[in-house]
């Protein structure tokens, strides 16, 4: 039996009848752009996430771009973002004409390292983008305090963390704007591209709505240049069906992550990352130096509601991550490297100013050590056992 990294059919096909009915309803309505399905989806997302305004957007990438646009960020501005993230975080900043300035991340929670961000501040810095990577919140108290001190906007990249919480509050509702994605592999996975922005600020919500539709108001009058950032009515209608289950999906992922932690931590040389080492790769390395550490398991911090978009192991030692990848692949276990090249090493950013690219050593370490294994909600006990057995039989 092989175990894929993700099985979208296992989640979608049990809803097939309901999805088909909804498709038919939209088909027959003849309304495909904006309208009642879009508004209903937005209202339901706002309720689910505990936010005042939720505005659907064409993709998670576009959610980041429109958030930056609404905050007036553009040429001459700098935006600090973590180097260890998916490309869209940085690409969006670049596409507004602003400069992405990369800082390092925490080796334990994979979130933005505010001390590193502090070293990247210039008179041009306008915003910071904490990315809640793999389903877990960044250290938002530190980010907020840092942003306040330097007068920065906070854009939360919640693409991988729909439904995650930080100290009991919803991720994406704590900064100025939260940006979500409904790409099929995300925790609320759609049937194509889609995204969402959230904000508690009425004025920002007005700007975002305006920018989503070419900056047009009233019809055919444009006081600002926006774009077509709309999400399809069909996509909204289909996602309304899945939104009702998003809590179950997260619970399934949490259950699978707990199962891995329980089983894998019993294997020789496997250690659990510790919340106490947050932010400190030297501290963590020193603590692990006298043990023969073969694998480091991810950890959910006590104050975070982790939604486990990925279950990401670290495999220290030259070439060992590649060896584990080959071993798992040979056994039919899906795995992937999120992400093999940090942003400060990307060819397209090579021309950025030196301070934008410096001192991201933890990101380099992580990009050489991480590997993600299947954690999707619908994994069966037999599949989980197979993944565990495959890792147990890795002896390199
Ligand atoms: C997926 C993702 C995005 C982009 O979302 P799309 O909907 O694919 O455009 C942005 N940031 C992060 C961290 C992501 O994982």
From TrEMBL:
Domain of life: Bacteria
GO biological process: polysaccharide biosynthetic process
Entry's Gene Ontology molecular function annotations: pyridoxal phosphate binding; transaminase activity
UniProt feature coiled coil, ranges: none
Cross-referenced InterPro entries: DegT/StrS_aminotransferase (IPR000653), PyrdxlP-dep_Trfase (IPR015424), PyrdxlP-dep_Trfase_major (IPR015421), PyrdxlP-dep_Trfase_small (IPR015422)
Catalytic residues of the enzyme: 186
N6-(pyridoxal phosphate)lysine: residues bearing it: 186
A Pfam match: DegT_DnrJ_EryC1
Keywords in alphabetical order: Aminotransferase, Pyridoxal phosphate, Transferase
Family: Belongs to the DegT/DnrJ/EryC1 family.
PANTHER family: 3-OXO-GLUCOSE-6-PHOSPHATE:GLUTAMATE AMINOTRANSFERASE, TRANSAMINASE
Official protein name in the record: DegT/DnrJ/EryC1/StrS family aminotransferase
Organism the protein comes from: Luteolibacter luteus
């Amino acid at each position: 039996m092989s175990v894929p990294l993700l099985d979208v059919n296992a989640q979608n096909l049990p809803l097939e009848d309901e999805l088909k009915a909804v498709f038919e309803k939209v088909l027959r309505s003849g309304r495909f752009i904006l309208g009642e399905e879009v508004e209903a989806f937005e209202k339901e997302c706002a309720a689910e996430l505990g936010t005042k305004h939720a505005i659907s957007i064409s993709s998670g990438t576009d959610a980041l771009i429109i958030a930056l646009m609404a905050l007036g960020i553009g040429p001459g501005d700098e935006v600090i973002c973590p180097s260890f993230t998916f490309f869209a975080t940085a690409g969006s900043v670049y596409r507004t004409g602003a400069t992405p300035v990369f800082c390092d991340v925490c080796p334990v929670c994979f979130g933005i390292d505010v001390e590193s961000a502090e070293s990247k501040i210039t008179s041009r810095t306008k915003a910071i983008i904490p990315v809640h990577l793999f389903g877990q919140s960044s250290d938002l108290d530190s980010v907020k305090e840092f942003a306040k001190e330097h007068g920065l906007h906070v854009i939360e990249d919640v693409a991988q963390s729909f439904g995650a919480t930080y100290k009991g509050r919803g991720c994406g509702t704590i900064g100025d704007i939260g940006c979500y994605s409904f790409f099929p592999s995300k925790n609320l996975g759609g049937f194509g591209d889609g995204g969402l922005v959230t904000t508690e600020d009425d004025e920002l919500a007005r700007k975002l709505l305006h920018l989503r539709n070419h900056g047009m108001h009233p019809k055919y009058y444009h006081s600002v240049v926006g774009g077509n950032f709309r999400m399809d009515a069909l996509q909204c209608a289909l996602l309304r069906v899945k939104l009702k289950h998003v809590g179950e999906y997260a619970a399934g992922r949490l259950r699978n992550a707990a199962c891995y932690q329980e089983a894998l931590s019993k294997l020789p040389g496997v250690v659990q990352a510790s919340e106490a080492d947050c932010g400190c790769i030297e501290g963590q390395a020193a603590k692990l130096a006298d043990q023969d550490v073969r694998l480091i398991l991810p950890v959910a911090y006590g104050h975070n509601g982790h939604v486990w978009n990925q279950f990401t192991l670290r495999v220290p030692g030259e070439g060992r991550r590649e060896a584990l990848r080959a071993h798992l692949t040979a056994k039919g276990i899906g795995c992937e490297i999120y992400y093999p090249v940090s942003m400060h090493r990307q060819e397209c950013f090579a021309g950025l100013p030196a301070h934008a690219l410096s001192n991201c050593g933890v990101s380099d370490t992580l990009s050489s050590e991480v590997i993600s294994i299947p954690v999707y909600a619908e994994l069966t006990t037999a599949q989980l056992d197979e993944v565990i057995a495959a890792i147990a039989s890795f002896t390199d």
